[in-house]
Amino acid sequence: MDRIAITGGFRLEGELPISGAKNAALPLMCASLLTGETLKLSNIPHLADIKTLKLLLEGHGVKTETVNEGSMFGQGQTINFTTKTITSTTAPYDIVRKMRASILVLGPLLARVGEATVSLPGGCAIGNRPIDLHLKGFEEMGATIELEEGYVRAVAPGGRLKGGTVLFPTVSVGATENILMAATLAAGTTIIENAAREPEITDLANCLNAMGAKISGIGSRTITVEGVDKLHGTEYSVMPDRIEAGSYAVAAAMTRGELELKGENLLDAMRGSVGVLKQAGLEFTETGGGVMVKLGRDKIRGINVTTQPYPGFPTDMQAQVMAMMTLCDGASVINETIFENRFMHVPELTRMGADITVHGSTATVRGVDHLLGAPVMATDLRASMSLILAGLVADRQTFVNRVYHLDRGYERLVEKLSAVGAKIVRDANLGI
Ligand code: EPZ
């Protein structure tokens, strides 16, 4: 089991390339099920979740061809996805349990061949995360849904979904993406109300329109989809990862360094986070092909933060900002409204000397002078990043265990941080 060791106290300086967004690449890959022609996706990050989904798609009959492996730093891989025929409509438990996003094959399979049998995702570290909103949406489009032995069996009567009005009582990124993809091939028009507005959904909708879909209201709360009979192939580049960028912006601020994050339209993609990070004292300056970021004051300013659906402050940045607030000038109150169990980084940060108290979904963080290196345990993807960030500034050495969580969402993290001055190594045999 690999561990990461970090020796704290080194400023980060230089250029850091931002990879393609995991949470855009995953639904875009699922969109390849919607057409018999080739979908060529570029800037796909090298991540564990991408490998898992590729395996799942190949099980459905998707032929994948890696056109370009991409480079060591930043430039992602280019892969052709071609689904001439769907060879299986079952998404098996042993894959789905590894990655909740597998549920995003449900809508495309239903749309393409009128049926799908997908394992229920099961719980995950940050909450039980049901899929009731996905299933209710498909029922609104005429699908019959049955649950049997831990699997969802969905069927479109007559082999084709029909357009309908899908009103989400609460905002859901995945459910919006699933219904959006299914609606592209439905008979008639679908209206999605209270749709999630994350940039990754805009990326997906733009790609679907390039494939011949007829989607309007992209990026707004109400999306209208006029169903078509077929979609064709296209070429599309995955947007940069706004959460990776936000995570490294925090790293620059915490180490009092200065990083140039390289990627197209980064500030725009980071819109949900930039306001909060500026409040905390970070300064952003656009450069040609990226954005320069540093802390523009002596100490991090203590601020109050509440996670919200986009364009609010993203829950995926909550753990990283909490790490930063452990050293703030004064105190910070962080309110997590999206997931019911997304404070698992708190006990680990506390082991490093942070002063954090949690009441329900609210954490109060009182700034301390410094953090102490310690062996800590990663529990989920973003919590792992908060521990890496703390290790970058803690005294002595921090050992982060269970780093496979990081591999799900941060491409070549050790290489990228080492290249800008961090003292960080990864090795299965690191002492504890
Ligand atoms: C997506 O997850 C992201 N994952 C998550 O990123 C992100 O945290 C989340 O959106 C919120 O922004 C991908 O895009 C692959 P939701 P998703 O459906 O779609 C509840 C990361 O770190 N809900 O918007 O699963 C749910 O329990 C990951 O990169 C229902 O109740 O999130 C949660 O409390 C973590 N019923 C809330 O809605 C449903 O049918 C938001 O979930 C669906 C969701």
What do these coordinates show?
- This protein starts with a strand and ends in a 5-residue tail after the last strand.
- It has helices at 22-31, 48-59, 93-96, 106-113, 132-140, 173-183, 199-210, 242-254, 266-269, 271-279, 318-325, 346-351, 381-393, 404-407, 413-418; strands spanning 3-7, 13-17, 38-44, 63-68, 77-82, 90-91, 115-119, 144-148, 151-155, 165-167, 189-193, 214-216, 222-226, 234-237, 258-262, 282-287, 290-295, 304-306, 331-335, 355-359, 362-366, 375-377, 397-401, 423-427.
- The chain folds into two domains: 3-18 and 241-430, UDP-n-acetylglucosamine1-carboxyvinyl-transferase, Chain (Alpha-beta prism); 22-237, UDP-n-acetylglucosamine1-carboxyvinyl-transferase, Chain.
- The chain contains 15 helices and 24 strands.
- β16 (282-287) and β17 form a beta hairpin.
- It has a four-stranded mixed sheet with strand order 22-23-1-24. Strands 2-15-17-16 form a four-stranded mixed sheet.
- It has 432 residues and is an alpha/beta fold.
- Ligand EPZ binds at residues 23, 26, 100-101, 127, 129-134, 170, 172-175, 196, 315-316, 338-339, 381-382, 409.
